[in-house]
Amino acid sequence: MSRLIRNALVMLLLMTVITGIAYPLAVTGLAQVLAPSQAHGSLIVKDGRPVGSALIGQSFTAPGYFWGRPSATTPTPNNGASSTPSNLGPTNPALTKAASDRIAALREADPANKAPVPVDLVTASGSGLDPEISPAAAEYQLPRVARARHLDPAKLRELIAANTEGRQLGVFGEPRVNVLKLNLAVDQAAR
Q: DSSP assignment, residue 56?
């Protein structure tokens, strides 16, 4: 019996070292070598300081910035610790009200803009943290940002195009614009 207990304890210790120490260290080291940016959270750095991640949205509400998708995380928007979809179905009155409120906020921020509001500006993504919007959503906001920043709309279109990523592998997903990267480019252009 004592031999069985000793064997069980040795196996527990061995597996703890392998799965709890050696494996995580090996995976972390491999990630540092093969994909260092992703291993460090895909951080976006400005003036030597991290200002955000390319993978997690940020809330922008000033008229001189492009706004991202609404966040489904509560109580703090874009909180990675509470990533979750809203789980509201298309017939749920709460979803309709949230979308209506967001449309009203967009219309209030730019009353002259009578274009249809792109759906990604009024609905949260599956994770509630999406850092990207469609090129159409960026184009919709362009007049407001141009007026607030006193920038030529053609210059903003260039910035949108420069910050638009195509489909993954040429076929998966849709073209998208990272809102934080675009807003940093707008900051740079407005100097």
A: S
pLDDT in tens, 61-93: 899 999 999 887 766 777 777 776 767 788 889
Pairwise CA distance, residues 113 & 71, whole Å: 23
Enumerate the domain spans of the chain.
1-40, 42-189
- The owner of tokens 């298309």 is 90
What are the two backbone dihedrals, phi and then psi, of residue 107, each rounded to the nearest 5 degrees?
A: -65, -40
How many Cβ atoms are within 10 Å of 66's Cβ, its own excluded? 25
Provide the mean pLDDT of the chain.
Answer: 89
Q: Say if CB 122 and CB 67 are below 8 A apart.
A: no
Q: What is the mean pLDDT of residues 106-112?
A: 92
pTM of the model as a whole: 0.80
Task: Give the other-Cβ count within 10 Å of 83's Cβ.
Answer: 16
Is the confidence at residue 126, as pLDDT, over 80?
A: no
Q: Give every CB contact of residue 49 below 8 A, 6+ residues apart in sequence.
A: none
User: What is the token pair recorded at 174?
Assistant: 């849709």
What is the C-alpha to C-alpha distance for residues 14 and 9, in angstroms, rounded to an integer?
Answer: 8
Do 120 and 44 touch, CB atoms closer than 8 A? no
CA angle 136, 139, 145 (to 5 degrees): 145
